[in-house]
Amino acid sequence: MELKNAVAVITGGASGIGEAVAKSLAARGVRVVIGDMDVKGLERVAGEITAAGGQVAWTRCNVTSDDEVATLMDLAIEKFGQLNICVASAGIIKDGLMISTDKETGKVRKAMTTEQFKAVVDVNLVGSFITIREAAIRMVNNGYQGLLVPISSVNKAGQTGQLNYSSTKAAIALWPKIIIGEFQMRGIKNIRCVAIAPGYVGTPMVRGMNQEALAGILQGVHIGRLIEPEEIADLIAYAAQNEAIDATCLEITGGLIANGLAK
Ligand SMILES: NC(=O)c1ccc[n+]([C@@H]2O[C@H](COP(=O)([O-])OP(=O)(O)OC[C@H]3O[C@@H](n4cnc5c(N)ncnc54)[C@H](O)[C@@H]3O)[C@@H](O)[C@H]2O)c1
């Protein structure tokens, strides 16, 4: 795909990986549309993209809402005339053990609530589904050349303390093969799907972690540091330009060989 003048929609575009992807694609000539719940963040990122000479539009969007996601996708077409890249980066964590036992009595004193589990599934899994579906509908109906990018994470071993989060990310790692299987059945050749599975990325969420826990995690990372959000953005830009990358989930972990155990 030619990046210059392509149009990308990025959810979670007000922070972290979504912000880096939006800025990086805009710097490469892509016209970007960002959606997020954080309006102040959207204004800031859009202002910075414009100041750097990029083209950007934004709207507040909760990815769990069919209507709001549809509006976000339509904004791309109204404003920039097409829709080629969709990065579903909106995501949340609500960490905790499934059951926490009391050190003295050995009895369960706290458990992950159903709400805590469902909230993460709702944003990370259902929200990504709505995002990718709404983009795919418009790409197919208008014949746009497209790339769908759902965001997974460490998805094989999972992460202790993240039963809710890891469940969503393991599922998303499967999506490219399932979605491209559908497209293959129906002869849809113009749209690719590539998931990205980052390891530990230096976004505000991770940098704000307990520093001791973070140091423990980095011991299991071969390059010995957090991945920069810009490095994730570079991989997405590369995948967009290389048609041979399709129906797969690309890991970018800095050589993560073990998961730090939650303390
Ligand atoms: N940071 C990491 O180490 C890491 C690693 C692997 C995968 N990921 C994944 O990458 C994605 C981005 O993570 P990040 O680190 O940039 O996080 P972040 O918190 O910096 O950004 C996430 C953005 O999503 C937005 N958001 C949350 N709920 C939303 C909703 N319902 N609708 C719309 N927007 C919503 C937030 O407002 C925020 O701006 C997530 O899916 C995350 O799971 C992150």
From TrEMBL:
<dbReference type="GO" id="GO:0016491">
    <property type="term" value="F:oxidoreductase activity"/>
</dbReference>
<dbReference type="InterPro" id="IPR002347">
    <property type="entry name" value="SDR_fam"/>
</dbReference>
<keyword id="KW-0560">Oxidoreductase</keyword>
<protein>
    <submittedName>
        <fullName>3-hydroxyacyl-CoA dehydrogenase [isoleucine degradation]</fullName>
    </submittedName>
</protein>
<dbReference type="InterPro" id="IPR036291">
    <property type="entry name" value="NAD(P)-bd_dom_sf"/>
</dbReference>
<dbReference type="Pfam" id="PF00106">
    <property type="entry name" value="adh_short"/>
</dbReference>
